[in-house]
Amino acid sequence: MKLKRILAAALAAATLVLTASTVSADSIFDTAKNIDSGKKVTKTLDQGESMDYKITPTEKGTATVKLTAKTNCCEFYVYDADGNEVKFTCDATLGNFNKYNKNLYWDKTSEVFKGTLSFDVKANKTYYIKIKQYSYAVSGDWEFTASFKYPSEEQEPTALMTLNLKKGDTVQLGANGDKASWKTSQKSVATVSESGLVTAVKKGKAVITLKCGSKTQTIEIIVE
User: Fold this and answer.
1) In terms of pTM, does the model score above 0.85?
2) Please, how many CA atoms are within 13 Å of residue 49, restricted to the half-sphere of its CB?
3) Strands 33-34 and 50-55
4) Which end of the chain has fewer CB within 10 Å, C or N?
């Protein structure tokens, strides 16, 4: 027997949990790659090589880069879209930071630098990040791991609710606001129509995502 329930998801007012340089910014505009919030990358860099990324936050806030560098010295820079340097802070748990020349020094007992670099960002502005192996370091391959996080509407939306259904059950979801759209993470488990009607297909879990304007919410569906 099918079960029909009416639920409303109010998203209209929801808030998503959401000095001189030694490096030229000119080339980073060509080499920087987009990096999503929550992503982690690992690369090996030789003497003077760099890893360049760009981010475009959708909200005002703070961006962070958690960096682990197996090297004796490296450099960190942030630029705005005009090529101006952006000030950042460094919380080093292994090694030290020289704020005058942007150098990150290793902890000699572990031969590793580890810390979090943070800087303020504005909504819908692009920022360029350069992590560079120190030019005068001993030649060789050095491993760098960086994790990026910044305000983004795609970033970890908070689950509005969890619903337990049986195969064949239907649930009518609603949204307060115009231009609401729905999608499911697992069509084989639960489908959702353009109007927000969810149908339980088979045992498993699916996440229904509601997007209303710039706001996003998720509803977890568990089919028993």
Assistant:
1) no
2) 14
3) parallel
4) N
